[in-house]
């Protein structure tokens, strides 16, 4: 066995297998037959998926790939995304069904919004925006907390054919200004503030700053700022620009006729937190995006709109929120929970209280949240009745087997299957995932491409690797919800995603992956997170997983730090479990040795960390991604770089204080 495949083989220690629950199989939305159909006729399969939506005019061509990598799906078709997410459910007699159980951070602050009410509010918002001169093709920036008006504003834009760009409310005014300038937004929708950990926190001041910055470059760009009153805190007011939502929207008519849009009409631009340079504006269009988000939401979670209560615990400011809080669930007529706050406000059982109160049946969240709950301990969820949960989802990063099994057992009662969904801002919707009525789950593996999706693991030359081997993940055929380009930058679009395997015409995802002996897929993290130690390719994910499998470790992040002898060396940052700390365990030399040896035992000597640093927190973005770049700065004794996208920018100070002693 070569050294490379030896390293890869070590992840396959995992022997646990979970069959789909029998009662779920008996009434599953999707069966093996769906995979077979899609394999026999890929485009025909996506046509059928598109037929689940209501179209003005039917398409005359499913896919136009004449000018790759610029795809057009459902060519000639017309539809309105807002109509599909709202009006048609009311017309079908489901106006009284709750669309959104909104849960504010302050405990008694809740709202239940039915589809009929949603239709009225979206129509009012569309009328108000239209009165401000917003029309088809105009850009609207949305900078909001997690309140219903955020979804309403998005749907109001879609109704008019205006293109929204939601900027996560945790971003700085600079980030907002650069995005407004890049896409040319004429209106900004915001609120006075939002609630964070029990206290109101302002948003409008950041908008005021952004507007001033934008005005320096483009004085006439922003014509209005539409402000929701959420916290009631004092705000500066500019009569020339600012308009209260309750005046403009509240006073508008509830009648609004949505206009049919071309299937390829832009729906939104979502900026990805650029690792280098300028953020990338990912462009999604209407027909293909809505088809894939609606269909995957229905299939991956086995959604039964009449009975399920669905909850994506993420922020609308990220693609997960766009696709699986707003567009997918609403297109399917789902009853969803939307939660404004953090998991520990006002106490660490808040999520489980919400699950119990609303009878949540499907929960979708990030592994980082799961590992946090593991750290807090199983006693906290045990205080609540979570028996309503029947399907669980995971997204955003590889889920390590320990977290997967804990999620399944402790949250899912040992029966709810875990859907580990691999996808990206760029892919718009799920691409690689188990399906709850079909797949035998393997902790840590995202398993197989979704029906109608063609993915491969290839070597540097673009040749598919065999089972048991690793390489780069590519998507080999266009898919409906694929990004169409980077806003205003076709060249960068081609360069970033299509130049790596230009000969084959593959989409380069930027992720490492391996196929196990059964041909199932394991995502190994971004290729930029893959280390090279003494010429061996090693996955940060794999070592993190080994560390987290140690009973004293709650969470771990691994980076490859420059090393004179070995090229890169493994540096690990770990958070200990509260039980370990309560037992008086400190970051002793003995414990550090124990953890290093544990990794050696789990993976091999090559993976043994050079350094293990015990830290109180890890630096995470608001979407929960660990910013390894910053840890790398610490590991390499450098000045720590830009911390503006961290959820809590003081975390790095804590880590630096602790790290000097741990090596
Ligand atoms: C990157 C995309 C998908 C929406 C949220 C993140 C990583 C995502 C998984 C998963 C392993 C995953 C990949 C991908 N990723 N899901 N299930 N297993 N890795 O969207 O910010 O565009 O990030 O997240 O590295 O490339 P994003």
From TrEMBL:
One GO biological process term: acetyl-CoA biosynthetic process from acetate
Catalysis performed (reactions): (E)-4-coumaroyl-AMP + CoA = (E)-4-coumaroyl-CoA + AMP + H(+); (E)-4-coumarate + ATP + CoA = (E)-4-coumaroyl-CoA + AMP + diphosphate; (E)-4-coumarate + ATP + H(+) = (E)-4-coumaroyl-AMP + diphosphate
Domain of life: Eukaryota
Keywords from the UniProt entry: ATP-binding, Ligase, Nucleotide-binding
Domain AMP-dependent synthetase/ligase: 92-479
Chain ranges of the Acetyl-coenzyme A synthetase N-terminal domain: 32-85
Matching PROSITE patterns: AMP_BINDING (PS00455)
Name of the protein: Acetate--CoA ligase
Annotated source species: Rhynchospora breviuscula
Highest classification ranks of the organism: Eukaryota, Viridiplantae, Streptophyta, Embryophyta, Tracheophyta
